[in-house]
Amino acid sequence: MMKEITLLIADDHPLFRQGVVDALSLEKDFQIIAQASNGEDAIAQIRALQPMVAIIDVNMPGMNGQQVTHQVTSDHLPTRVVLLTGYDDVEQAIHAVLAGAAGYCAKEIQPEVLSRTIRAVAEGKYAIAGNIFTRRELDAWIDEQMEGARKSYSEPGSPFHPLSDREMEVLSCVVRGMSNKEIAARLGISHQTVKNHVTSILRKFSVEDRTQAVVYALKRGWVKLQDTAAKHQE
Question: Domain total for the chain?
Answer without folding.
Answer: 2
